[in-house]
Design brief:
Structural class: alpha/beta
Strand content: 25-35%
Shape: globular
CATH topology: Transcription Regulator spoIIAA
Number of domains: 1
CATH architecture: 2-Layer Sandwich
Number of helices: 3
Distance between the termini: 31 Å
Strand order of the largest sheet: 1-2-3-4-5-6
Order of helices and strands: EEEHEHEHE
């Protein structure tokens, strides 16, 4: 399958195998970290695919207007998990017009220097 996704009423997270990009859209307000487990599973699965093909996985947040603290925790946990594997870095794209992204996404690169963050 070329595209995998995780979606709800207000958000869509979609992986495009052809570009090795996970695109986040909408507003993510899931209640707990456990509610984000399917997202974590998707991120780990597509990261494995990217590593096997020796390509960098891109996480594109430019269309994500909001993600709550449980979601930030899930993303941080993902980075910490892949950091321990130390296989391939990731590329993160952010939108300079969405205020939460600058600080929160930049913190991912503090967790692991192989996270390249581009905002703007």
């Amino acid at each position: 399958m070329a595209v995998q996704e995780f979606k709800g009423n207000d958000y869509l997270v979609e992986y495009d195998e052809n570009t090795h990009t996970v695109t986040f859209q909408g507003i993510m307000r899931l209640k707990t970290s456990n509610d984000y487990a399917p997202l974590s599973e998707l991120l780990h699965a597509v990261y494995d695919i990217a590593c096997k093909t020796k390509l960098v996985l891109t996480l594109d947040f430019r269309q994500l207007k909001f993600i709550n603290s449980s979601g930030i925790h899930a993303l941080s946990r993902f980075v910490i998990d892949i950091r321990t594997e130390n296989r391939s870095g990731i590329h993160v794209l952010g939108n300079p017009d969405i205020h939460w992204q600058y600080r929160s996404l930049k913190n991912l690169s503090k967790l692991w220097p192989k996270v390249q963050v581009d905002i703007g």
